[in-house]
Design goal:
Layout (H helix, E strand, L loop, with lengths): L3 E9 L4 E3 H5 L6 H8 L3 E3 L7 H16 L8 E5 L10 H8 L6 E5 L5 H14 L6 E8 L9 H4 L4 E10 L5 E9 L7 E2 L11 H5 L6 E2 L1 H23 L8 E4 L4 H11 L10 H4 L6 H11 L8 E8 L3 E8 L10
Parallel strand pairs: 4-5, 4-6, 11-12
Antiparallel strand pairs: 1-7, 2-3, 6-7, 8-13, 9-10, 12-13
The structure holds acetyl coenzyme *A.
């Protein structure tokens, strides 16, 4: 097996900011409720007519530039998303074509907000085994497109964006050290878009009933998230032969500051080692971890040799953690 890790990173978010004050005018909510329950102050919303691939392409191009890798070198494209441009074809094929990537396998990966870590795991295995040489892994979601903007219990939580990494061979001792993925489908009803799939194809009635929007049982997801963030982090560290004290940078899925705080407290990870940007972006689903990684790199918090642990949870219910010895260049090109 060859050492394999992240060679470059990039992210892209829409310019339009939707603040809590804006939401106060749309639904019966308040800045105080949103801030105290979630930590979110604003989120980014894609322009009308834009699709997930538009943001995936921007993030992917930045990751390629940061890695110094040309599109011709990429032989695998994975787009983790719950909000692909279409049901058919895959968003990954659209991204592959628009980035000028030739002769690559391309597919979408559906694991909700855990999708980026899932895709990183798949690319790591594909490259370290020698089956592929360089992969472009993108987490991209426009959750604003499947949110019911009249449902205050969900619409305040989400934002749009994309983050991408290039995965390839690294120096020995660097790169992904271990991953841990899991799923518990008994929690499928807790985060679900009831209609528009094969179970309930879209009809005038399903649209009328708002069944094409995301439905969430928030408190069930909350309890699951706090428990699984701790369990997944401990398991990936065990697989890597490391301990929580070894973590230089903890990059949790950015869904809710209370989930992040509770998980960090259980793990004993101190604040200065945690990346938090949920206040500016909300929950960007599969994009949240690579956006957080990209910002940490820009801020000089991420250097070669650092031990990074990424951990996410999401619809499925799913979870995923990755432990990496950071291998990408320290500055430039990330955003
Ligand atoms: N503004 C004001 N009041 C609200 C709002 C709002 N935006 N939303 C809900 N409420 C009300 C409800 O109507 C309810 O009122 P009631 O008690 O009179 O019925 C009350 O607030 C609910 O309060 P709590 O149960 O105390 O809310 P909680 O502390 O559970 O916070 C939250 C809710 C923020 C949704 C939390 O449960 C959470 O973060 N869950 C996890 C969600 C998550 O991470 N989802 C993403 C998963 S990743 C993916 O794959 C998409």
């Amino acid at each position: 097996m060859r050492p394999t890790g992240i060679l470059g990173i990039g992210y892209a978010v829409p310019e339009r900011r939707l603040t809590n004050a804006d939401l106060e005018k749309m639904v019966d909510t308040s800045d105080e409720w949103i801030t105290s329950r979630t930590g979110i102050k604003e989120r980014r919303i894609a322009a009308p007519g834009e699709a997930t691939s538009d943001w995936a392409v921007r993030a992917g191009a930045k990751a390629l530039a940061h890695a110094g890798v040309s599109p011709e070198e990429i032989d695998l494209v994975i787009v983790a998303t719950a909000t692909g441009d279409y049901v058919v074809p895959s968003t990954a094929s659209i991204v592959q074509h628009r980035l000028g990537i030739q002769s690559a396998a391309a597919y979408d990966l559906g694991a909700g907000c855990s999708g980026f870590v899932y895709a990183l795991d798949q690319a790591w295995h594909a490259v370290r085994s020698g089956g592929y040489n360089k992969a472009l892994v993108i987490g991209a979601d426009l959750i604003s497109r499947i949110v019911n903007w009249q449902d205050r219990s969900t619409c305040v939580l989400f934002g749009d964006g994309a983050g991408a990494v290039v995965v390839g061979e690294t120096e020995p001792g660097y790169g992904v050290l271990a991953t841990y993925l899991g799923s518990d489908g008994s929690g499928a009803p807790f985060l679900c878009v009831p209609a528009g799939g094969s179970r309930r194809p879209a009809t005038a009635e399903t649209v009328q009933a708002g069944e094409h929007f995301l439905r969430m049982v928030g408190n069930e997801v909350f309890k699951f998230a706090v428990r699984i963030m701790e369990e997944a982090t401990l398991e990936v560290l065990r697989r890597a032969g490391l301990a929580t004290d070894d973590i230089d940078l903890f990059v949790p899925h950015q869904a809710n500051i209370r989930i992040i705080d509770a998980a960090a407290k259980r793990l004993g990870v101190s604040d200065e080692r945690i990346v938090v940007n949920v206040q500016r972006y909300g929950n960007t689903s599969a994009a949240s971890i690579p956006i957080a990684l990209g910002e940490a790199l820009e801020e000089g918090r991420l250097r070669p040799g650092h031990l990074v642990v990424c951990v996410g949870f999401g619809a499925g219910l799913t979870w995923g953690a990755a432990a990496l010895r950071w291998s990408a260049a320290p500055a430039g090109g990330a955003a």
